[in-house]
Amino acid sequence: MVAGPSQRFGRRRVLLGSGSVAQGTLPLVFRHFGVEPGQVTVVKTCPDESGIAQALGVRVLAQALTEDNYASVLEPLLDAGDFLLNLSVEVSSLALIRLCWKRQALYLDACSEPWPGRYDNPALPLAKRTNYALREEVLALRTDPQAPTACVTQGANPGLVSCLVKQALMNMARETALAVEPPASHSAWAELARRLGIRVIHIAERDSQTSMRRKQNDEFVNTWSVGAFVDEGLQPAELGWGSHEKHWPAGACRHGDGCDAAIYLKRPGIATRVRSWTPGEGPYHGFLVTHAESISIADHLTLRDTAGAVAFRPTVHYAYHPCDDAVLSLHELAGNNWRLQRRQRILRDEICAGMDELGVLLMGHPRGVYWYGSRLTIEQARALAPYNNATSLQVVAGILGAMAWALRHPRAGLVEPDDLDPTTVMALATPYLGELAGVWSDWTPLQDRSRLFPERKDASDPWQFINFLVR
Questions:
Q1: Which of 141, 61, 130 is nearest to 95 (CA)?
Q2: Is the pLDDT confidence value at 3 over 70?
Q3: Omega into 158 within 30° of 0, i.e. cis?
Q4: Interval 308-365: pLDDT, tens
Q5: SS (H, E, C) the chain
Q6: To the nearest whole percent, how much of the chain has pLDDT over 90?
Q7: Per residue in 340-379, is it b (16+ CB within 10 Å) or e — as a string?
Q8: What pLDDT is attached to residue 10?
Q9: 361-379, pLDDT tens digit by residue?
Q10: Are 283 and 447 in contact (CB under 8 A)?
Q11: Each residue's pLDDT tens digit, 7-29
Q12: CA distance 334 to 352
């Protein structure tokens, strides 16, 4: 499956970063976009210890990027029509987008990042450490709708899950005999969600990948970047706040500016658990880690009345159960007062079993909840692409799909995942997602709750946030 002429790169591309997602992406860029090794430069903080870039014949520039040097390092590598794929951490997305527009180059990242010292700065107000604040800063760049395309927060989640939400809405309409045409605007998608009775959307993920070598003391084990996971996990928990909610959470705050689609809690996401459900796992407790899609999906599925008041919006948030060794790592991290372990290990080649079950759980329809997403085993991931596990390949799939969209729309300005045509994105992503499944269930967060201890809950409406929150 090779991209057609309209999707091929004619110029240079620069890949920032060398983590598990960057390693898994590089060979597939060659597979799909007609790229020659001499057209690619990888910029990373240290020499290529993995040997992947060398094996592919790609030039590596070992140079850490800082606020002082990023422009001088990258400007010689970028001209009109080139493509900067940013898969790094602690390099400002805002700065890189401005640089790309100055050089007339295309841009894509999987997560909007600030310079170091923002997520973990106790001197900053909590509101400034949120993804909501960072998203508003990025969206403020939207002054030229015909600037070179800059796709922001486009991986698996955030990214691919915005496509999954749209497909899930269409599936639900079809399977409940609701005759609709595919919506052509954000408001039309929001109206469809309202007609289907959607009250809550979880990005519901259960990663069951494991290895024979279990987590050791003073070690953080994960199936993707340890640094990025801990950074986002120590940000305040955030969620899109639905119009149906009746109970204000303890310690919750509004921002008072911007789109006003989300709230944040005065506690870290990796110390906040919620009840959720996936087909393979069943009921589980996941971490309410902040992610950009919790805000963007809620924002784009908002309907307002003629006076501008919110008439409809679902509650949206992440419910993440990482691999079991990562859960143990989080417990140890919390016990160390959030000081990161001395050793970090990314599971890939040593994984012996498991899958990443990543999807969206839509709740509120009279028929029940509906989960739609990717169920990708480690065996499938290894057969589909080199240098990947199931988790990284789902992210890479979203990146590839958005790259294809950007090449077809090179002058679209700044876009979020919710702005992209899901057909284009999924055409390239789907072959890397294993089983794409849609499953109905009668699960609710009130189902089979223990009677041993009193709990704060609302038995009259299962879709209230207080029923999901684990105390």
A1: 141
A2: no
A3: yes
A4: 999 999 999 999 999 999 999 999 999 999 999 999 999 999 999 999 999 999 999 9
A5: CCCCHHHCCCCCEEEECCCHHHHHHHHHHHHHHCCCHHHEEEEECCCCCCCHHHHHCCEEEECCCCCCCHHHHHHHHCCCCCEEEECCCCCCHHHHHHHHHHHCCEEEECCCCCCCCCCCCCCCCHHHHCHHHHHHHHHCCCCCCCCCCEECCCECCCEHHHHHHHHHHHHHHHHCCCCCCCCCCHHHHHHHHHHCCCCEEEEEEEECCEECCCCCCCEEEECCCHHHHHHHHCCEEEEECCCCCCCCCCCEECCCCCCCCEEEEEEEHHHCEEEEEECCCEEEEEECCCCHHHHHHHHHCCEECCCCCEEECCEEEEEEECCHHHHHHHHHHHHCCCCCCCEEEECCCCEEECEEEEEEEEECCCCCEEEEEEEEEHHHHHHHCCCCCHHHHHHHHHHHHHHHHHHHCCCCCEECHHHCCHHHHHHHHHHHCEEEEEEEECCCCCCCCCCCCCCCCCCCCCCCHHHHEEC
A6: 95
A7: bbeebbbbbeebeebbbbbbbbbbbbeeebbbbbbbbbbe
A8: 53
A9: 999 999 999 999 999 999 9
A10: yes
A11: 444 588 999 999 999 999 999 99
A12: 28
Question: End-to-end CA distance of the chain, in Å?
Answer: 48
Q: Which residues pair with 327 in a beta bridge?
A: none
* Furthest C-alpha separation in the chain: 65
Cβ atoms of residues 264 and 130 within 8 Å: yes
Residues 6+ apart with CB under 8 A from 128: 118
Residue found under tokens 């990888």:
42
Q: Within 10 A of 322 (CB to CB), how many other CB atoms are there?
A: 27
Give the number of C-alpha atoms closer than 13 A to the C-alpha of residue 9, restricted to the C-beta side.
Answer: 27
Which residue is listed with tokens 């999901």?
A: 468
Residue type, 291: H
Query: What is the CB neighbour count within 10 angstroms for residue 461?
Result: 17
- Single-letter residue type at 35: V
Q: What gap in Å lies between CA 390 and CA 463, rounded to an integer?
A: 31
Which residues are registered as beta bridge partners of 238?
264
What is the amino acid identity at position 37?
Answer: P
In this structure, the number of other CB atoms found within 10 A of the CB of residue 130 comes to: 23
For residue 12, the model assigns a pLDDT of 87
Q: Say which residues have a Cβ less than 8 Å from residue 218's Cβ, sequence separation at least 6.
A: 332, 341, 342, 343
**Rounded to 5 degrees, what are φ and ψ at 391?**
-65, -50
List C-alpha distances in Å: 57 to 30, 42, 85, 143. 11, 11, 18, 39
